[in-house]
């Protein structure tokens, strides 16, 4: 590339970088956004506390709220964790989950907790959707979603390694939503798949920003991540230390990483 073209390319990259940073400043949540989600969780826990059906039942967030990769308008994924004795692996397990979600739907409606309430029992993972009336937060509730909890923890650890990872994932998710290719109900990519695409890109760019995950976590199959969320604190700290110890010489700007992502996919 001759010098004039190189200067023009550099200027274009600076414009793109500034634009991306501006977009991030618009979509990144602030303290109030996180507080609204936490208060929604607290209110939901209070709502079900005195419902006999949900005795000894707890709720836990997962998804983007836990991984930290959510926008101001991102939804809130919640796992309704049934008592241990209700989680037996038998033919009644799905019926128990559907019954719990159906009961919760009635509670949410009758107590005017949410609006636009929709129960989707036929989904691969049955889900109850609604928008909290008080805080205007979209909520997706499933039952005993330990896999979702594990994946969220996994992404949190990865994105804490390098701010560029968090920012790139958030930008790709917003781009996918804008182009209507981030909706599994429409047979397009879910958010977790988009996160994995970004991770793959950062493992295969030159030089790599992330190593193969087995070098960090010690597993050879990503399905093994399912058990991570419930491992002991000792192993959790060990995993986090492994991520922190990895060093990359790649100092590419966010704009350059975004461009190379689209060139690769």
Automatic annotation (TrEMBL):
<feature type="domain" description="Poly(A) RNA polymerase mitochondrial-like central palm">
    <location>
        <begin position="24"/>
        <end position="156"/>
    </location>
</feature>
<dbReference type="GO" id="GO:0031123">
    <property type="term" value="P:RNA 3'-end processing"/>
</dbReference>
<dbReference type="InterPro" id="IPR043519">
    <property type="entry name" value="NT_sf"/>
</dbReference>
<protein>
    <recommendedName>
        <fullName>Poly(A) RNA polymerase mitochondrial-like central palm domain-containing protein</fullName>
    </recommendedName>
</protein>
<dbReference type="Pfam" id="PF22600">
    <property type="entry name" value="MTPAP-like_central"/>
</dbReference>
<dbReference type="GO" id="GO:0050265">
    <property type="term" value="F:RNA uridylyltransferase activity"/>
</dbReference>
<dbReference type="InterPro" id="IPR054708">
    <property type="entry name" value="MTPAP-like_central"/>
</dbReference>
């Amino acid at each position: 590339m001759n010098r004039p073209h190189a200067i023009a390319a550099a200027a274009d990259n600076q414009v793109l970088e500034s634009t991306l940073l501006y977009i991030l400043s618009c979509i990144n949540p602030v303290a109030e956004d996180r507080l609204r989600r936490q208060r929604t969780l607290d209110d939901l826990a209070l709502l079900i506390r005195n419902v006999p059906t949900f005795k000894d039942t707890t709720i836990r967030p997962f998804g983007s709220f836990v991984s930290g990769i959510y926008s101001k308008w991102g939804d809130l994924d919640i796992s309704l964790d049934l008592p241990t004795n209700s989680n037996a692996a038998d033919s009644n397990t799905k019926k128990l989950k559907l019954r719990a979600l159906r009961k919760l739907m009635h509670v949410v409606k009758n107590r005017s907790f949410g609006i636009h309430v929709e129960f989707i029992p036929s989904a691969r993972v049955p889900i109850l959707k609604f928008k909290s009336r008080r805080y205007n937060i979209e909520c997706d509730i499933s039952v005993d979603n330990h896999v979702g909890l594990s994946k969220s923890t996994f992404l949190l650890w990865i994105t804490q390694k390098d701010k560029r990872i968090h920012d790139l994932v958030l930008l790709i998710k917003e781009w996918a939503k804008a182009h209507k290719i981030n909706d599994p109900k429409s047979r397009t990519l879910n958010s977790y798949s988009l996160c994995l695409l970004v991770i793959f890109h950062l493992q295969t760019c030159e030089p790599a920003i992330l190593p193969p995950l087995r070098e960090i976590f010690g597993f050879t199959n990503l399905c093994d991540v399912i058990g991570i969320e419930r491992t002991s604190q000792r192993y959790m700290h060990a995993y986090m230390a492994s991520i922190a110890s990895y060093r990359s010489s790649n100092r590419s700007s966010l704009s350059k990483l975004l461009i190379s992502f689209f060139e690769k996919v």
